Q: What sequence folds into this?
């Protein structure tokens, strides 16, 4: 099970967080290409002004995002804390997607498995492995034969520049260059179990 802290971690500007969750009973939260597209459209609409995305992957019954919280003016906060602002945006985001998904697939009830999890990323070594872990995750979960071919992750947007929510410049600067980014993703550390960092129940 996930640690209680994974549900209670508070957002603060400038910090990095691993955000993840899955569908209830491990059922699908994405059943069509339009579902994947709509999820990312809503992310940009409700969270694009508040979070910088370092990496992400959408994986049939769960998702992973690595994000950095932006800095906000008093006008943006409107008396709220940074955590309250971000948490409210996530609430709207998940609710909107769930309602649309239920209507589209003629279902009722909760879509997501409880509150979404978030883990503070405070270690640079962890950050590098987490970026890779998120990108390799679709292959690990047997959704594709080669993670580099998966349409619903930030990997391809980093390798081939195009419009995306991911902060491509930050990622390439972090690894030093595009060749180093690619090399790191092909190393044996694909097999590193991220749970050694999180002590949680990742997919």
A:
């Amino acid at each position: 099970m996930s640690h209680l802290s994974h549900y209670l971690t508070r957002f603060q500007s400038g910090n990095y967080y691993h955000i993840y969750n899955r569908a209830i009973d491990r059922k699908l939260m994405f059943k069509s290409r339009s579902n994947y597209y709509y999820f990312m459209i809503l992310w940009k609409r409700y969270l694009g002004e508040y979070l910088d995305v370092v990496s992400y992957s959408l994986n049939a019954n769960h998702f992973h995002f690595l994000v950095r919280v932006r800095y906000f003016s008093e006008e943006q906060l409107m008396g709220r804390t940074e955590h309250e602002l971000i948490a409210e945006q996530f609430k709207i985001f998940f609710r909107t997607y769930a309602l649309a998904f239920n209507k589209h697939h003629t279902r009722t009830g909760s879509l997501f498995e409880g509150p979404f999890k978030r883990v503070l990323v405070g270690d640079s070594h962890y950050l590098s492995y987490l970026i890779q872990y998120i990108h390799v995750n679709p292959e690990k979960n047997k959704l594709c034969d080669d993670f580099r071919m998966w349409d619903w992750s930030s990997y391809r947007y980093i390798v081939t520049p195009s419009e995306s929510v991911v902060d491509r410049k930050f990622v390439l600067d972090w690894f030093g260059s595009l060749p180093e980014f690619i090399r790191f993703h092909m190393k044996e550390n694909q097999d590193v179990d991220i749970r050694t960092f999180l002590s949680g129940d990742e997919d």
Summary: Residues 49 and 70 are 8 Å apart (CA to CA). The chain has a mean pLDDT of 90. Strands lie at 16-22, 51-58, 62-69, 117-121.
